[in-house]
Predict the 3D structure of the following.
Amino acid sequence: MDTASKKQRIILFFCLLLSLAVSLYLFVIIVRYPFVGVDVSVNGNTVVVRDVDPYGRLAGQTIDKGDWILSVDGRSAAENPSVQKHRFLDHAETVEYRHHDEVYRFHARRHPSLSGVFYYLAVPLVFCMVSLGLGVYLCVADWRGRGESLFILFVSVISPVLLAVSSGLRTSGLHGGLIVSLTMLYGLILFVHFLKNYFLFWKLSFVSTRFLISLYVCATLVFVNEVFFPAYSLGARFPLELIFTSVIFAILFILSGRLYIRMKRNEYRQLLQVLMAGIVLAFFPFVVLYTLPLMLFNYHLMEWPWTTPFLIAMPLTLFYLCRSDVFIDVSFLSGRLLYYGAASALCASVIVPLFFALMGDRISYGRIDQIRLGLIVFLVLLLVLYIKDYVDYYLVKRLYPRRKDYQISLNRFLQWVKTEHDLSHVAGILKRETEIGLPVEQASLLKCGGKMAFVTDDQAESADWAKEAEEMARDAGTFKETTKGFSVLLSDQGSEKLVLVGRWKEPRRKLNPDERTWLTTFLNYAQIIIENRYRTEDFIQMMKKQGAESGAVPVTLKKLMLKVSEQERRKLARMLHDRNMQDQLAIARDIDGWEASWGDEGTRRLFRHIRERVLDSVYILRQVIYELHPEFIHQAGLVGSLRDLFKKVNLRADFRLSTSIEDDLTIFNRDLELAIYRVIQELLNNAMKHSKADVVSLILKEDIGGYRLTYDDNGIGMDVTRLGQVLGTMGLPGMLSRVEGLGGRMNLRSRAGEGMHVTITFPSNG
């Protein structure tokens, strides 16, 4: 981490601490002043109730519209500053009011509203802690350059907003309207600013710098209006903020939709889907269900406290964009939304009417109450279904160990059949896994053709049942069952059919869903394996026939075998590196620990000797891996890799190696690059093992239309007539296959006692 980055993180961390300090101050205000929440009208010294906040302390009491507020905290209600200025009684310890000619004294601290505590304290506190927690996490985590600094600044600004709204309802002042205006206005602009930098990281244009500056200017003008021209009634307390919020919501959605339409790559579209879903989830309830109806019709479809829990989607969405590589797969969630949404809606449509029908006249409710309850039930069910997916993954193996056995069975079957080519062995594996996984008394693989026979050694099946099973199996892969047993046609080669048959255990039971799922997958695997076996045999026979007729091994077969050979080399190299070499290094580390804990010098010397032997083995193993799969060719280049190979040969060989390679030799075909390296490697290995030469010469240069490799040695030579058309991937046959597989030509001249001379040409296009 450079110095500039450290300074930036320190500043951002200080912003988070400042935001936390402001949040704690607002929290103290909320706890200190009990929220009463009564809208009043004043006529002289008479204070009359106009409305009662449904989440205030007085909600649910005997107070009603038209009642008189007599005193607040022992003083006349008309003298209360909030009543005088805002026509609103925000906080109080005690309230005296007259209801139907009776005077009631209400103690606010003794009657907390649970709904008020939830919406005005719990939700703001959770929003603040989650936002600051995400900011702290990114402040100490590695940055990917996706706008992390702006995200931290965004959560620093936005985290106190709900606490500020809640405290502003209790008492006026700096912690009220000004903090709300500051956090709402600049929080939204920082939201847009983050998205600009985030999509710039992916080389995408979300919004222009000029337009972003204009948004900052507009937000500043709205904030100045709040400071110098404050509103005078609660109902119009944040009119410009509400309008500005609605406009930013529309801008965000339009910009995201425009970028989504222009987008071509599916990966970026998924990010935009996440963004648009987060914007809708965070702002839609507040803007569409509360703000717009309130401004247009002076009525709201959803009370504003209900919209506050959804705002948590704002920081979570941006956090996901920053850390999408370590977060959940949103494409998985969106892919199941339609199914889970339909299931949740169906259940909610049954639960809500049933609830109100059972409650009858015991509760009073309207259509809005039904809609709200239905929405809550729908969201809860939707969340439960999503959570169930992840809980199932962790708990199902413990609660239902049988399901784990099915997965182990499939893995075991695949591991066993990978190395089996004999049909009788494959049949034995099929039989064993079928009898373990299903309620089957006995399973067998039946070969039907001119003569019916069991492939497995067990011949306990009756001829009548085998005949019945053969007649049942008509369509490949179709599972046929009767009261006696089942049969599946695994392969149909015309003259020969392979049918898996089995008898049910008595008393018979129906297969459960897990068993059916396992059986379907198991049979698909078995079909593919058996079909590939037949296809491989046919292919080999065809190649042999073609080679016998033409007198040469087909180039296609050579290419295929070399490709398979390289894949096996890569697999073996990876296995040696990940298993054997790591195990030996772990042993060396253990020996270090044993040596340190042993006091006897002779024993410690023995430990050091063993450790050196282990490390020598690791070095040799690393060289083997290096030669098996030379990935370094594509990193260091062919010329550098060959020079490294020549150094090793000079250290190990008994001959003098003379080489000539053009420094500017460049090959752009990866297959050709690897083939040339392999050919030179094989020539030098052959020289070290068999040639008994004193001098070896090797020249690689670019030729007209390709590349020319020339090799000469003064060794004992060989009888080249024995090579013929041998099919292989190792030694000189493998070298010849590589050359011809890439369209090259090899001229090999050698006689006993006259050394070996090889000239190879490769076309440039490989």
Observations:
- Residues 232-238, 724-729 have pLDDT under 50 and may be disordered.
- The CA atoms of residues 197 and 203 lie 10 Å apart.
- The radius of gyration is 40 Å.
